[in-house]
Design brief:
alpha/beta; Spore Coat Polysaccharide Biosynthesis Protein SpsA, Chain A; 12-stranded mixed beta sheet; 3-stranded antiparallel beta sheet; 15 helices
Length: about 450
């Protein structure tokens, strides 16, 4: 008997089996044990640095100080100065929730780069049509609590000149009573938009929301990174918009401001959202008519059919370069959301968007993969269309973008052996739809003025 030949045949067969395993199509983890292992693996990867960072990370706050204010600028300035003095020895953040002050408080606040400012107008009229329904004090303060990053939280009012260190509670235990929220009309949909220095495009995006004929109560939340092009000055005058300002560039009081990730900014908006559903679009996007209502219809249709839906992807295109609208399948052939609607509970269940690993790109696809892993589906919504203005200069930046390259590496490393392997079949791709917008929304809006 030739043992060498037998051994060689066995080795060749083993290699063929291994190669077959590596080139198989990735499948969703099917058993509870597979799910447990995949979730554990993802959690481990979230706790370590997968790729060398391209920008310094901001230090995470240990204490969050929340201040509610309205038309008390002098007292507010003094209270904040006292906080800065009392808390300078530990990482902290200051969150001010302003009810729409008219005494210069907001204008002063948006210049303070160490403060997260949330403006929720609570008085007057909006767009000359309707009176703003007042929210109770508890509701406004709870918005601040939801933004808090620190393990400990202190709450003071604008007239306090000393920080009450005894007022410390766990953030996740702070809830507002339903009776308090019900005093104002509760939003069913929250539209969250992130923005920085793109006022012209931002105004167009918001106008497309306002004119979308949304049939349910909704709110608009804009998270701004500290714009200097007049965006903030315009936003704080819009009484139907909740504006969150978190400066992300430059210096303040002689110290550089460390950059925050896209995921961190979007989570500020997502966590403060009141709606059951959260619609996410970029500040350079336009919603085509009736898109939001169609997204709601799709959610209701799927939920009535007993399906566990985490998100609805809207079809989009990069205008003017692309002619067809599409949604995209990500790793493992799983549908992702570039622009569309999430179930807020699904975001909570998967622990929101990853803030530490990514800088700007891929975090939206990442949160969709987490939903798939946790048993949620993401479905497309034919008829719900988004126009995305694609600056030609943006394509040039992408060809030499260290941040994009970094985030792509992180994305593949996080999902390796779960929904991705170098030798697995490639299932990423587009699902396209041909559609002619009879209203020519993009042409009329984007070509109306210089962008």
């Amino acid at each position: 008997m030739n043992y060498r030949k037998i051994a060689a045949r066995v080795w060749c067969q083993a290699k063929r089996l291994y190669r077959s395993y590596l080139t198989q199509t990735p499948i969703k983890p099917a058993t509870p044990e597979q799910l447990r292992k995949c979730k554990q693996l993802l959690k481990q990867r979230s706790q370590k640095q997968l790729v060398k960072p391209v920008i310094p990370k901001a230090e995470k706050s240990l204490v969050s100080v929340v201040i509610g204010s309205y038309n008390q600028k002098i007292l507010l300035e003094k209270a904040i100065q006292r906080v800065r003095c009392d808390r300078s020895h530990v990482p902290y953040e200051i969150i001010v929730v302003d009810g729409g002050s008219t005494d210069g408080s907001i204008e002063w606040l948006i210049q303070q780069k160490d403060i997260i400012t949330l403006v929720q107008h609570n008085r007057g009229e909006c767009q000359g049509k309707q009176s703003i329904q007042g929210h109770p004090w508890e509701y406004s303060i709870d918005l601040g609590f939801k933004l808090a990053q620190g393990k400990s939280l202190s709450m003071i009012s604008h007239e306090c000149l000393s920080l009450p260190t005894a007022v410390k509670v766990e953030v996740d235990k702070l809830e507002v009573a339903e009776s308090a929220i019900s005093q104002a009309q509760k939003s069913s949909v929250s539209i969250v938009i992130g923005s920085y220095n793109r006022r012209s495009l931002l105004e167009k995006a918001i106008n497309s929301v306002r004119s979308n004929h949304i049939r349910v109560p909704y709110e608009i939340i804009v998270v701004d990174g500290g714009s200097t092009d007049g965006s903030l000055e315009w936003l704080i005058q819009q009484k139907d918009i909740i504006t969150i300002v978190q400066h992300n560039r430059g210096q303040f009081q002689g110290k550089p401001i460390k950059r925050r990730s896209w995921g961190y900014f979007m989570n500020l908006g997502f966590k403060s959202a009141q709606g059951k559903y959260i619609l996410m679009i970029s500040d350079d996007c336009l919603l085509l008519p009736n898109a939001v209502n169609l997204g709601l219809d799709k959610f209701e249709e799927m939920e009535k059919a007993g399906r566990k839906i985490g998100g609805v992807a809207f079809y989009f295109r990069n205008w003017p370069q692309e002619k067809e609208y599409y949604v995209q399948n990500s790793l493992g052939g799983n549908l992702a959301i570039n622009h569309g609607m999430y179930l807020k509970k699904a975001l909570e269940d998967v622990d929101w968007i990853e803030e530490e690993q990514y800088v700007f790109y891929k975090a939206d696809s990442d949160v969709c993969l987490k939903m798939w892993l946790y048993g949620y589906e993401i479905v497309d919504c034919p008829g719900a269309y988004v126009e995305h203005y694609y600056d030609p200069n943006e394509a040039v930046r992408h060809t030499n973008n260290a941040v994009l390259e970094h985030d792509q590496k992180v994305y593949l490393k996080r999902w390796e052996r779960i929904y991705y392997h170098l030798n697995w079949s490639e299932l990423r791709g587009k699902i396209t739809i041909k559609y002619e917008d009879p209203n020519r929304t993009a042409e009329k809006s984007f070509l109306k003025s210089n962008i």
